[in-house]
Design goal:
The chain is built from nine helices and four strands. It is of the alpha/beta class. Strands 2-1-3-4 form a four-stranded parallel beta sheet, with helices on both faces.
Length: 268
């Protein structure tokens, strides 16, 4: 006889598992240790040549390397404090995202040595970024919130063009676009469907939101969150029952929860 709890915990096809935030922090920390070691080796090898130019040049170079790594470690510790639910400094978020942009390619290679996929690492970053967003308590009026989704959320056989105007959707129920249009009408936020990163950035410039909620895969969410920074953004992973970029879905209950957390209640 099958234990009912086993079926309950079984992962459904196409549904992303819950990412672990400590995975991203651990890979980033490991990357920083390796970076610090490489910088020290470079400095050690370069000392004789630098000293031949000026006696203070090795010290200046070492100080620059040390300050750079010190700021990087401070950003990582700040992120870890936020994830742990402890007091942290939101002012250091810019340095944190710059650190991620710089070191993430190396973190992917390091994760690969341990058999960890890029997708898992990106999912861990999104979970960490969402937690930072929520800890900052960001709330905006509905009309200043932008919700962006990829075109693959629309049913592939649908003849109606919705990339510029989602209200062209006939709300047949064949995909989740109709539900999102209805939710936008109900709550009052801006909703757009983008065919790629370029159009998504164009939409952001046109609407000038105070916050963004994006629905996409791990790769697009990670790049999008970093692209719009310092604009605060929260990501919701899509569901891929047919594989990536084809007839994807989204958990509408999760979307509504995130929206209710972000949107300021209307004052009567």
């Amino acid at each position: 006889m099958t234990d009912p709890s086993e079926n309950k915990n079984k992962k459904k096809p196409g549904v992303p598992g819950r990412p672990k935030k400590r995975l991203f922090l651990g890979m980033l920390a490991g990357t920083m240790v390796l970076t610090a070691a490489v910088l020290y080796l470079v400095w050690y090898i370069a000392v004789p040549g630098l000293a031949g130019i000026s006696s203070v040049l090795p010290w200046i170079t070492g100080a620059v390397f040390s300050i750079g790594m010190g700021v990087a470690w401070l950003g990582l510790v700040n992120m870890a404090l936020a994830v742990a639910g402890l007091p942290y400094l939101p002012l250091l978020q810019r340095q944190t995202y710059e650190l991620i942009n710089l070191l993430f390619p190396l973190a992917v290679r390091l994760a690969g040595l341990f058999g960890i996929s890029r997708r898992r690492l990106e999912g861990s970053f999104i979970a960490t970024s969402n937690l930072l967003f929520n800890r900052m308590g960001i709330r905006v009026p509905a009309e200043r919130l932008l919700v962006v989704t990829p075109h693959c959320l629309q049913l592939a056989t649908c003849p109606h063009k919705i990339t510029r105007d989602p209200h062209n959707c006939r709300r047949c129920g064949g995909c989740d676009i109709g539900a999102l249009v209805a939710l936008a009408d109900e709550m009052g936020f801006h909703f757009f469907v983008a065919t790629g990163g370029t159009l998504a950035r164009q939409i952001v410039r046109q609407t000038r939101p105070q916050a963004v909620l994006a629905i996409a895969c791990e790769r697009d969410l990670m790049s999008g969150i970093q692209d719009v920074y310092p604009l605060p953004a929260v990501g919701v992973l899509n569901i891929r029952p047919n594989g990536p970029c084809y007839n994807t879905r989204v958990d509408m209950e999760e979307v509504r929860r995130e929206l209710e957390r972000i949107i300021l209640p209307k004052q009567l």
